[in-house]
Amino acid sequence: MAKRTESDRAGKGTRLSRPPTTQEAVLVALRHSIATGELRPGERLYQDALAEQMGVSRVPVREALNVLRADGQLEYSPHRGYWVSELSLDAVQEINLIRALLETEAIRQALTRMTDELVEQMEAINNEMARATAADDVSKFVALNHELHFALFDHAALPRLRQHIEALWKGADVYRTSIFNDPEARLRMLVEHRDLIEACRRRDFALAVEIMDVHRNKAVERLSGLLSRSGSPDAPGNGEEESVGTEG
User: Fold this and answer.
1) Which residues make beta-bridge pairs with 81?
2) Which residues pair with 244 in a beta bridge?
3) I want to staple 148 with a disulfide (CB 3.0 to 4.6 A). Which of 60, 125, 179, 229 is the partner?
């Protein structure tokens, strides 16, 4: 069974309690801020300001920023520094295509070794998501959504495949909150999750893939609509550029 991990809400102005290493703590905080939309597409990040806000030195901040850059969640140039990655409509559609290919195989392999315990685990996570929706806790909903999907992907027991899927998810994390902020979208996802769980209970590969494709495509359609209208949902508009702190 997949191991659940929890991280404290972290971002601008948050001082850390320092799990395993300072660099890992900073990385968890920044990933959380990107995934929940606290850091927005195009937003700049400054090492000195982040170090001061989190109560750490610049070294672990720089290391964490470089990890996020390697993951595709941040971009960097010598003149501009680091900023949260922005995706084009074509990039979103390409990510969706590749995810469909990889996730289909992950589901195929997971269903060959499906257990009642995993089905129960996925049901429990979806029930937690329902409670998060009722409480309008988008941050928790985002984390639980990832947990549910990767409980299934992890069961495929293909770590390299899982790594590639994770990278694709991270690349689009900054935009996912644009969808999750919609209460109706969250309720629809809960229903789609229940359908997926039932397909897993039946060990019905074709149905599980069909449900997952619809689930994924609906999210991409909504995001594509946002990108088509605004170019970058939730990003600073009218030529204004927001930043985390001041340059140092």
Assistant:
1) 77
2) 45
3) 125
- Cα distance between residue 11 and residue 54, in whole Å: 8
Instruction: Indicate the domain borders of the chain.
Output: 22-86, 89-230
Q: Would you state the structure tokens that stand for residue 239, as one six-digit string?
A: 């030529």
For the segment 118-165, what is each residue's pLDDT rounded down to a tens digit? 999 999 999 999 999 999 998 899 889 999 999 999 999 999 999 999
Which tokens hold the place of 86? 């922005």
Instruction: Spell out the CATH class of 22-86.
Output: mainly alpha
User: What is this structure's pTM?
Assistant: 0.73
Sequence-ordered strand ranges (E) for the chain: 44-45, 74-77, 81-84, 243-244
Superfamily of domain 89-230: GntR ligand-binding domain-like (1.20.120.530)
Inter-helix orientation angle 159-180/205-230, to 10°: 50
